[in-house]
Automatic annotation (TrEMBL):
Signal peptide: none
Molecular function in Gene Ontology: catalytic activity
Renumbered residue ranges of the record's region Disordered: 226-246
PANTHER family recorded: ENOYL-COA HYDRATASE, IP11341P-RELATED
Source species: Pseudomonas turukhanskensis
InterPro entries in the record: ClpP/crotonase-like_dom_sf, Enoyl-CoA_hydra/iso, Enoyl-CoA_hydra_C
Family: Belongs to the enoyl-CoA hydratase/isomerase family.
Pfam families assigned to the protein according to its UniProt record, in alphabetical order: ECH_1
Protein's UniProt name: Enoyl-CoA hydratase
Basic and acidic residues biased stretches: 235-246
Length: 246
């Protein structure tokens, strides 16, 4: 499923309608049994300039909530999270809450012209969309604090060094490569992909011991699936598997 930010006249800055629409798109993705992976991108030159603070500040002070039927793209605002992989492809400005969207996603790509900044401390607030939870897990404590405590801007190659993105590409190659990766993930066994994602998340959120305790049960469930049987047949017949998600 392609999910595109579409407020290019404002550099895709998040106002309340865009925030709500993104959560509803994630909800639609979660419920769509035919959609195995989501690719989040942006229309226009910039991924997003971050939050449109003039529009959203009062709502966040009173408490923004995920709309009914939506899923929480950031995993910190109290709504359910999607159980399927999300790939994010960014270019141009990628500020504040968009970095946090990437940190909550699974695979991230960027164009070589991307400029990143977690600049909340320059606006009298702090990164409340998950960067304080995840940036140090991805980049290490010192690297995370270097950018979170200054709000300074950094480039695509620094983002790759930090582990925020997995690949840096020319602008014209960004979407073709992102689509190629999305199709590659979508071709794999859906139950296996979702179980891999769930186990890794559990290890982060609950600890390795809790995640390890659940491995045998998950293994037995997947071994009994039609997809696992198809995987064996495909291996024996030396062909790609044709998986149904059951």
């Amino acid at each position: 499923m392609l999910i595109g930010l579409d407020r290019p006249s404002k550099r895709n800055a998040f106002d309340l309608p865009l925030l709500d629409d993104l959560t509803l798109a994630y909800g639609e993705f979660e419920r769509d049994t035919e959609a195995r992976v989501a690719l989040v991108f942006a229309h226009g030159e910039h991924f997003t300039a971050g939050l449109d603070l003039a529009n959203v500040a009062a709502t966040f002070v009173s408490g923004w909530q995920i709309p009914e039927g939506g899923c929480d793209p950031w995993g910190v605002f109290g709504g359910p999270r999607v159980s399927k992989p999300v790939i994010v492809a960014v270019q141009g400005y990628c500020y504040t809450i968009s970095i946090e969207l990437m940190l909550a996603s699974d695979i991230n790509l960027c164009a070589s012209n991307t400029r990143f900044a977690q600049m909340e401390v320059q606006r009298g607030i702090f990164p409340f969309g998950g960067a304080t939870l995840r940036m140090h897990q991805t980049a290490g404590w010192g690297n995370a604090m270097r950018w979170l405590l200054t709000g300074d801007e950094f480039d695509a190659h620094e983002a790759c060094r930090l582990g925020l993105v997995q690949e840096v590409l020319a602008s014209e190659e960004l979407m073709p490569r992102a689509l190629q990766l999305a199709e590659r993930v979508a071709a794999q066994a859906p139950l296996g992909v979702q179980a891999t994602l769930a186990s890794a998340r559990q290890a982060v959120n609950e600890g390795e011991t809790a995640a390890a305790a659940d491995l045998p049960t998950t293994m037995r469930r997947l071994m009994a699936s039609e997809d696992a049987q198809e995987g064996v047949r495909a291996m024996q017949e030396r062909r790609p598997g044709e998986f149904k998600g059951r």
